[in-house]
Specification:
Structural class of chain A: alpha/beta
Oligomer: heterodimer
Strand content of chain A: 5-15%
Distance between the termini of chain B: 57 Å
Number of strands of chain B: 2
Helix content of chain A: 40-55%
Number of helices of chain A: 19
Order of helices and strands of chain B: HHHEEHHHHHHHHHHHH
Number of helices of chain B: 15
Strand order of the largest sheet of chain B: 1-2
Largest interface: A-B, 45 and 47 residues
Chain lengths: ~425, ~300
């Protein structure tokens, strides 16, 4: 009988020892960082202030953020920031990981968040208001970006950068064929058709149902005067403009000049650089890949083509923000650290902007960047695309789903566009009614 | 003279007898050996299942606290048009996938068993996809299937127009099935092979003496003797086809136009795209019941056959 107990006990103990490795890391990791980073600062341990180790999750620009955090850690022994890079997947994968972490209670103290998803974190009470720090610096921000960061009168994040979409094209190929980049939708289709060969598509766009596909499509929607939901999120505005923008995607797919299925992420510019497409819609972030991975490839960028000549182009001002969790170990200290990194000395924000070809929302950073925004192609983004850009909408998940389904229907089925628009309208209304 | 039981007679020193006593206590040893697996199942399967059921009675988006809604999620799912379409697609997948898988893996097993000198090489080749991760397969096949990819280049050689493998609403589900077949037939081949090895040689010898050709011995001997193997394979592959996820997520993500959004993918979408955790859990239980019913039906069918 004793043996049984011993054997059982050993087995259970063994098993639980295995499980320990899977547990939350909130306590162990924290003390680790503090002890290793603070070896030099022995004096600080004599003071009575409590040491805190903060976790910072990011899915972009890890190198520069880590450099900033290291700098902060050197001068602030009591508040140590540990940066964890959650890269490798799409933005949606990152959001999944983050919300699961919040559900499981192992979420970071601060994190990067996209402008489409941030509102969810504000409304759920997770976001810690950083108004105290951001409002002081109000005049430094571009007004539209500053406004998009306000919820019920308070700022809830440190705006980090703005992503802008444009149309990239293969410059050499266009020169060889004697073509100019398309200015209208008709030209876009014609030129794409002309440049399609056995090995190459004329144009690469996102074809998988995703937030990114919507993001890429919205400028077409806005240019044709369409919209989905009013900015306060209560009224459905689906109309003829929506219809035209959906029709464009159907025409593009049916032209045979657009890749119906991409092998890699649509945001990845490799397709254009490797000659698999002659044109591609992408954001300014693609410049980094083009410059580092394909230094010999000659490319050009133009604003999105317009529906008819003389009309105004459009773009999508998305982007990323730094947020602080109100459920973290010390939200105030976390906000102080982020303020130090992102909201004070422009020199500290500059490396991230320059190395990753980001559009900064801060005027002081633009000034500090010198010629960076005055040279091609960043000048096109700043001078031609930014002025016509609209903030990326923060639609609810139910509306986003309806939009995604409408786009897929337009691209891959024969359902009449009128019917698709009708359905989109109905689904969006239901989603708003059910608060989804 | 000592009075001894037969057990003690055979035992030597005192510690040995103690050990023997413990070993004899079969139940204790049995459970203690089972403990690691059992605890694992309780922690990683049973408790999450109970928790999922608890979640399914709530409205929860993972960020704000759960709100009790009772059976509302279950009532909703019967009216969810998209869920019913997803289930329909899953049935289509199953109806095509299971017979194809059965036939293909049986053919492979026969090739490996009866073609002389082939077994080592073929077995390795056929089994190879099984050891690959579905995620990697999904990625590789995405390239093979792409509009200007390997398959369409091959078709062009024979002057056949390009097929929109993953970008056509009609074709995409079959493209997915092909990948699933490629991925899994090696595994079922091994199971069939084990079944084939179990059939006594005498049967075939007797049949040959009686003048049966190989076709007849296949129908009259091989197939009937593989009945138990077949039932196992059909049950497992049906359950598997209800749960298919990885390769689809990677190749099509349910598209185009939701044409490959099978049941589990729909549940995934509800939970991790729309963050309807409660509703997604209710859907999972719905799927669980469907699989359970299918399995019970098959077991019953198997029993009738056995009698």
């Amino acid at each position: 009988m004793n043996k049984k107990v011993v054997i059982l006990g050993t087995m259970i103990a063994l098993f639980f020892s295995l499980l320990v490795g899977c547990g939350g890391n909130s306590t162990t990791n924290g003390s680790d960082t503090t002890s290793t980073d603070n070896v030099k600062n022995d004096t600080s341990s004599n003071t009575t202030t409590k040491k805190v180790a903060l976790d910072f999750w990011t899915n972009i620009d890890t190198a520069e953020i880590t450099a900033n955090a290291d700098e902060w850690n050197k001068t602030h022994p009591d508040v140590q920031v540990k940066v964890t890079s959650i890269t490798g997947g799409s933005a949606e994968d990152y959001f999944q990981k983050l919300s699961t972490a919040f559900a499981a209670g192992v979420a970071p103290d601060m994190f990067t968040m996209s402008s489409t998803e941030w509102l969810k974190y504000v409304k759920s009470g997770i976001a810690y208001s950083v108004d105290e720090w951001v409002a002081k610096n109000k005049s430094d921000y571009q007004p539209s970006i500053y406004e998009s960061n306000i919820y019920e009168g308070k700022a809830y994040s440190f705006p980090q950068n703005t992503d802008l979409m444009g149309l990239y094209y293969d410059k050499k190929l266009f020169q060889k064929e004697g073509l100019q980049p398309p200015k209208t939708w008709d030209e876009l289709i014609q030129i794409a058709k002309k440049l399609t060969t056995k090995e190459r598509f004329g144009l690469a766009i996102s074809t998988d149902q995703s937030g990114y596909q919507d993001y890429e499509w919205y400028p077409f929607l806005w240019m044709s005067g369409g919209n989905i939901v009013s900015s306060d999120g209560t009224k459905v505005l689906v109309d003829d403009g929506t219809k035209n923008a959906l029709q464009l995607y159907r025409d593009l797919i049916n032209s045979g000049a657009v890749a119906k299925k991409l092998e890699i992420g649509a945001w990845d510019i490799s397709g254009l650089a490797q000659g698999k497409a002659a044109m591609q819609l992408s954001g300014q972030w693609a410049v980094k890949d083009l410059r580092t991975k394909y230094p010999d490839f000659e490319f050009g960028v133009v604003p999105y083509p317009v529906p008819k000549e003389g009309m105004k182009s459009s773009s999508d001002a998305g982007g990323w923000r730094y947020m602080v969790s109100s459920k973290g170990k010390d939200p105030k200290a976390a906000a102080e650290a982020l303020n130090w990194m992102m909201n004070s000395d422009p020199a500290r924000a500059l490396p991230e902007v320059k190395n990753n070809f980001r559009i900064t929302p801060r005027k002081s950073v633009i000034d500090a960047a010198g010629d960076f925004y005055k040279t091609s192609p960043m000048d096109i983004f700043i001078n031609d695309i930014l002025p016509v850009a609209q903030s990326e909408p923060t639609y609810s998940a139910g509306v986003v789903k309806a939009i995604g389904e409408a786009l897929q229907q337009a691209m891959f089925t024969d359902t009449p566009i009128d019917k698709i628009v009708e359905e989109l309208k109905k689904k969006s209304e239901t989603a708003i009614k059910n608060n989804q | 003279m000592f009075k001894t039981t037969p057990h003690e007679l055979s035992s030597g020193s005192k510690p040995m007898s103690l050990l023997r006593k413990a070993v004899n206590n079969e139940i204790a040893v049995g459970y203690s050996l089972l403990a690691p697996a059992l605890i694992g199942i309780i922690i990683f399967v049973i408790i999450p299942m109970i928790y999922a059921f608890w979640v399914s009675l709530h409205q929860w988006d993972a960020l704000i606290p759960m709100k009790w809604v009772g059976m509302q999620n279950y009532r909703l799912l019967f009216r969810d048009h998209d869920w019913l379409i997803s289930l329909g697609k899953t049935f289509l997948y199953m109806i095509v996938f299971v017979p194809c898988l059965y036939t293909l893996s049986l053919i492979l097993a026969l090739i490996v068993k009866y073609i002389r000198g082939s077994s080592g090489v073929f077995r390795t080749i056929f089994f190879f996809p099984v050891i690959m991760s579905p995620a990697i397969c999904g990625l590789i096949w995405k390239f093979i299937y792409s509009d200007k990819g390997v398959f369409n280049h091959l078709l062009a050689v024979f002057d056949i127009g390009a097929v929109r493998w993953l970008s056509s609403v009609e074709v995409s589900i079959y493209s997915v099935i092909i990948v699933s077949l490629w991925l899994q037939m090696g595994f079922y081949m091994i199971i069939f092979l084990a079944g084939l090895q179990d059939i006594p040689k005498d049967y075939y010898e007797a049949a040959t003496i009686d003048g049966a050709n190989s076709w007849q011995s296949f129908w009259k001997i091989t197939l009937p003797n593989l009945k138990h193997t077949s039932v196992f394979i059909i049950i497992v592959s049906i359950i598997g086809s209800f749960q298919v996820f990885d390769q689809i997520k990677l190749m099509t993500a349910g598209g185009p136009a939701n044409s490959t959004r099978l049941a589990v993918l729909y549940i995934f979408e509800q939970s991790f795209k729309l963050y309807n955790m409660g509703y997604a859990s209710a859907l999972s239980f719905n799927l669980f019941v469907i699989i359970l019913v299918f399995t019970l039906l098959q077991m019953k069918f198997m029993k009738i056959n056995n009698e």
